[in-house]
Amino acid sequence: MTATSFATGSRALAAYGGEAVWRESGAVEADVAAGGLLFRWKRMRPLPRMVVRADTANPILRLDPVDHDGHVGVLDGRSVRIETRDGALVDSRADARDRFPYGRRLISWDSLDLTYFLGYALWNYLTLPALLLRDDIAWREVAGSTLEAEFPSHLPTHCQRQTFYFDADTGLLDRLDYTAEVFGGWAHAAHLVTEHQERDGVRFASSRRVVPRVGSTALDGPPLIWAEVRDAQLLPLVSPSDERASTRPTQGLPRRARDAPGCRTCRPRGAAGR
Fold first, then answer.
1. Under a CB-based contact definition with an 8 Å cutoff, are residues 15 and 172 in contact?
2. pTM (predicted TM-score)
3. What residue ranges define each of the domains in the chain, with the CATH number in brackets?
4. Which residues are CB-contacts of 88 (< 8 A; sequence separation ≥ 6)?
5. Is 196 helix (H, G, I), strand (E, B) or coil?
6. Strand partners for 175
7. Which of 8, 65, 122, 132 is the most exposed place for a label (fewest CB within 10 A)?
8. Cα 86 to Cα 273: distance, rounded to the nearest angstrom
9. Greatest pairwise CA separation for the chain in angstroms
10. Where are any strands of DSSP class E within 56-159?
11. Tens digit of pLDDT for each residue in 81-121?
């Protein structure tokens, strides 16, 4: 059962551009900056600016660049790899999730760890409207404007069960509650969406802050993680031959018009109020 079986899910999908738009899309591309205390703890900070491309149908995402050497990080389901700009393999790790959170990862991450975490997290965040259309996620409406999702094991995500709070008036996401299990079973988080941007009638959550959570209460204080998403746009579905090429570096692929008209900012009400 998809989230659109419920009034909250249908309203949310309409707020993010509508079902047809997302079913006809192939990927989301955006400029992303991220930081926060948890990255400092793991001694592995993201670069100030990354070009991110997330497949809307499958958990595949590219981070360009992912390190100071200009390498590209790639999430491909449960696995990750680091590539050069021309597609040569630098390093890889199968079943990356199985390595978290213990051992060395208690105190430090490497580039493959960072690629896995940023990869799956950004894939979930950027493709939320497409997730609402998936029938392998068990959705249920638990309260007014609130959906609970139970994710299958083949989709990389923070934890199996997550709660999505949407603005009752706009239908836009206000908050997401989860446990970031790659840090530990104690890492209960409230993910607050404080700003959206709109391009060509499609909205994207553009400012995000993650804070500690006790029960249903989001705690005050500096963000554990923050993310700013700019110049987001949907890319169309591609032919099978082009899809094979999508595993190659982004260099040479068509880029969005950065100053295209129709991009405005809209702030949901009460984003941090739950």
1. yes
2. 0.88
3. 3-249 (2.50.20.10)
4. none
5. strand
6. 165, 192
7. 65
8. 46
9. 49
10. 60-64, 72-76, 79-83, 89-93, 138-143, 146-150
11. 999 999 999 999 999 999 999 999 999 999 999 999 999 99
